[in-house]
Amino acid sequence: MQLHPVKLHPSKALLPREEQLAWKIAGVAADKVAVQKDVAEMIINRIIDNAAVAIAAINRKPVVSARAMALGHPHRAREGKAGATVFGVKPATTVSPEWAAWANGTAVRELDMHDTFLAADYSHPGDNIPPILAVAQHLGRSGRELIRGLATGYEIQIDLVRAICLHEHKVDHIAHLCPSAAAGIGTLLGLKQEVIFQAVQQALHTSISFRQSRKGEISSWKAYAPAHAGKLAVEAVDRCMRGEGAPSPIYEGEDSVIGWVLSGRTVADQKGRAAAYEPVYYEVPLPAPGEAKRAILDSYTKEHSAEYQSQALIDLAFRMRERIADWDAVERITIHTSHHTHYVIGTGAADPQKMDPKASRETLDHSIMYIFAVALQDGRWHHVDSYAPRRAARADTVRLWHKIETREDPEWTRRYHSRDPDELSFGGRVEIVLKDGSRIEDELAVANAHPNGARPFGRADYEGKFRSLTEGILSAREMNRFLADVQDLARIPAGELGVLNLALPAGTLLEGKAGIF
Description:
alpha+beta; CATH 3.30.1330.120; 19 helices
């Protein structure tokens, strides 16, 4: 890997494009390096993972609405352009690819149960799959070409997340996703570096939004935001393939992202000009020319349907519950954890909604206090039952829930950001104090399903997750057909990627409310 320094440059510096981060990202995307076997196998795992969580969410309201919008944009058959499929809908029905990216991206994101990568910022790199797959279907590409595009999408998003923190500036993490999806589409289509360069810049420029979507009363936009980024990426590549340009330099420009949104400048005078530039800069790691794209192997999926920072703590709750006979005997519970966990899903967020039994599912899955209480009491976690309003309102759960607080522990924060994979952790230490003064303490660094966990996820686990989440929704024949097809991804010929869609039995898909489309 090569580290690329990125900082703000005044306009008069005329920064050459060869020194711009977007150009270097485009260079990685345009590199025709082969995809290694273990990377290709993990890509298959993540396609299975995405399909599982998408079908499990297929008739949830945000997904129904997104699907209805997409179906309002049916594809008109043209030579060489087949349209893209929509999860749940028979493959003969296709829509414009940006709308397939929108519908399928929402389905994948709705349950918050697919893959994750955490470093300087947050990410769900599986969000790259819907837009890249939609374009591959629409333009009749092969399974091998899809693998190449997805390897790039994962690589670019994860490399940006390693280096550039968006969260501290309250910018939503889709600002890393949209450029990575554009780069992945560029690899898929074999576009020239110049075209990908412009598309990456357009993608970033159009996808800056703020973290209020994951703060306070969290709404369905949490699922829509990554889908929207995927849609924007498809549109950005389309424009740039037609010869259109983009604001440049998008990262380093005087009035661009680093300068005004991230940590690029000190104070500004009243006229809006920079009084001084920060001497510090970001260092973004990217593969060197000819170096394989392997970042997907550093990401990890979820066993439980909840924010990733809760995964290890759910597993820890399962372990600790055996030592508690009476929930009302608990005086208080303190979760000592990282800065991110404390301030995003813990009491450090200062969100009263995280303690509200009437809060939305989206809010509850960002409340470690709620999650830990239910996991402690139930000894299981279910993507529907654990969030049911009746479950959230149970009196003994509310009493226990309101006895839980989080505290930032500098050591857990350090381990959260460690570059040593054997030290990197996303868990915490839990201290339960009982009313008789006795204490129960335990800790867990990583979830059981994590590559360093007690039971790392392998192909059989991905397939098991798929069967568990889709049982009763898909026919057994459709489940088996999909798993057989996806296993042979590299051999799927050009124009046949529609086999990666999954159709529900006739009459089981809910229809959305009427809108404009």
